[in-house]
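Sequence only, no structure available. Ideas?
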Amino acid sequence: MSLNSFPLKTDISFKRINALAIPALIAGIAEPLISITDTAIIGHIDFNAKESLGAIAIVGSFLSMLIWVFAQIRSAISSIVSQYLGANKLDEIKTLPAQATLIVVSISILILLVTYPFAETIFKAFGAEGPILSYAIEYYKIRIFGFPFTLFVFAIFGTFRGLQNTIYPMIIAMIGALLNIILDILFVYGVEGWIPAMNIQGAAYASVISQVTMAVVAAVLLLKTTSIKLKIVTPFNKEIPRLVKMVLDLFLRTIALNAALIFAVYMATSYGIDSLAAYGIGIQLWYFGAFMVDGYSSSGNIISGRLLGAKEYDTLIKLGNRLLICGLITGLILTSVGFILYDYIGEIFIKESSVLNRFNEVFWIILIMQPLCAITFIFDGMFKGMGETAYLRNLLLISTTFVFIPSLLIFDQFDYQLYGIWYTFLLWIVARGFPLMIKFRRKFLPLVEKG
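Reply:
I predicted one. Tokens follow.
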């Protein structure tokens, strides 16, 4: 694939949007699918299933925080590459992906070294104690070794997306997800006479092996199919300062996002083990829904950067409208399927009636949220693609500080428990999504009129 082998005319037909979105959707659910698989399989072990599920919920929240904070390199790389693609100047940034990958992987190794010896302190801060704390430490001290490989993969994904290619990320993600499911079953339950049952440690080992495999496949595909190399050369590319600025904006934004998630899991922990396990199931399904819609968000990220680089503002407005339609349809399908299978979904994860009752009481809130999530995540993706990271940063800081945290505390005061947590998520999504829609139209409609 040559760096300059792309057509100059930007296609935003529904066919083209779906051609990018569907592979991106499949690729996007790989990471939450790994966690969902861990949750589902661990929930059915014979010994301390609830405690193990609670530990995975806590570690999953912390790992999601780390991954989402540093995986913003994917969006930053994709934004810059796609804008240079639109301007037909890709040769000017062909050294950027390798340099950006080096930066983010180096940081991830530092995070591993810093957090590993303090795992107990970290998860005590989440409210874990007793068996839950022990299991959380065991699980984390294995899974964290997959963290650098995950960020390496995300950096490669960003490069492919910037080049308008979502097929290879899909292939990589499918390999990782399928391998994780197989290894989860083998390692968690064991194979008599061959593999001992490792329970929660087995789930962690399965995840790490899957993440390493994805990294190897990603590197091979990038080197074999593009002109971009992973060799580090000096001096640094001229776009490194802008990339670092974008990553820092998104870093602060994601800190705010994960502050919300940490507060939520802390509250769930305080409501008891049944509520924590039910929350663990709910948040994994919320992630899954978010990443399903993220296929169209990724299309917006990929195409909007190219349109901005080419200054095709009228097409950019049309793209926003079409993506909104696609996202709303996806969100409504997720909601409908969830209600149809309402009484069965929880049982995929655990058989404990006390946990299932807590989960079923609040699952409807997660379901009705899906179309609203679609609006938020699609415009979020477009703003990332256009490099509007400062606005995204400020919006997340404001919505978390003045909507999420106060709402969570107020609902807690009135003893809403899990209801309060999910009502808070609903309000937070609205506070994030509608300002993006308004900002997008106010910025680009005048440019269309001038053009």
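Residues 1-8 have pLDDT under 50 and may be disordered.
Hope that gets you unstuck.
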